[in-house]
Amino acid sequence: MALKVHLLTQNNEKTISKALESLSLLNAEIIVGDMGSKDGTHGICLKNNVKVIHLNNVSDRSKLRNELLGPDMNFYLEPWEILTSGHDNIRSAGNGNYQIQVYRDNIITRETRLWKGSLFENPVYETLKCANLQPLDAAIYSVGANQLDINKTLEVTRSWRESTRKIDPYYYEAITLLIARKFDEFVTISEHYLSLDETSMSATMLRYYLAQILLFNFEDASKSVRHILMCLAIKPTMAEFWCVLGDIYYKLKKYKKSKSFYENAMILGMRRKNDDWPIDLDKYKNHPERMISNIDEVLTNKLFGQSVN
Question: What is the CATH T-level fold of the domain 150-301, as seen in this structure?
Answer without folding.
Answer: 1.25.40
